[in-house]
Prior knowledge:
Elements lengths: L4 H17 L14 E7 L3 H9 L1 H7 L6 E4 L3 E2 L9 E2 L2 E2 L5 E2 L1 H6 L7 E6 L5 E5 L6 H20 L16 H5 L9 H4 L4 E3 H13 L21 E3 L5 E3 L9 E7 L10 H18 L20
Parallel strand pairs: 1-2, 1-12
Antiparallel strand pairs: 3-6, 4-5, 7-8, 7-12, 8-9, 10-11
Helix pairs in contact: 3-9, 5-9
Amino acid sequence: MKGSRPAFIACLAILLVSCMTFSTVRYSSNPIGKPLVLGIQISESVDSANRMLQDPFGKNFLKYIDWPLVVDPTYKQLKEPAAVTLSFGDRQVGGVTYGSAVLSDMGFTEDVPGFILVLDRHQRVRGFCRGFIADGERQDRMERELNRLVEDLLLNLDGSERITYAEEGISQQGIVSFGGAKATSADDTVIFDFQTDLKKALILDQRKKAGVSLMELPFFKYLGGQLPDYALRKPDGTEVGLHGLLGPQVTILVVFISPENPGMRNNYNGVGLTLQTARRVSDNFARGMAGPGRQAVMEARPDAP
């Protein structure tokens, strides 16, 4: 028995390393391709963006980035940052603290230091999330939905990029409670932690069937459609349009602010947490660290791995 102990320990070590290397976030056993991961860094200028990547304070939060970056150099401080901001629905009391060409076009009505978009092969926005949620259970649920959406799109179900999954149920009671101009119930807004065009279609359909007028809901502006061809800059200052960076492949687009303004340093906590979420999904699919699941999906039409 003593002689078998080293072999047992060696096998246990190999098992532990395997568990550390591969996660089980995937549900399918099919081979799949890899998504493009791209970051849009919003700063006062290209030089400001580059400096924050090297600044000791900035590096502490931006160190999770391992994907190409382009810059929206039009960041503007609209008012002095407050220690605490209050929002009702998705509208911030007193208006937003900062803006940029990209953020203003997207129509945010509260400060969003970072968010993640998932685009399909036709450059349509199929998913949106803010990247971090203070509630740990909701954060875990959001990340499960994010990973599932990316896998669904990589599988290319029926060759039509069909998506199948919304963990947060769309209840009839929840739909009817959206009769006002905005969703304000804490239970209801959980639905919007991770948004997909499928979830949006289900909600609008159920509201119509329930006889609820189609009032404004806090969905991302371009959910289900294409983003504009934003004018951006490469880190060397070269002008580039967003569409020229997106090919016919699934894309994870990570958008975050990185202002040099020292008064905005509290916002870097949200930036760092968003980048951590993005890094996990990037590791899972772009770096292939998510091992295959158990389900063989017969209707999958994935790109070549």
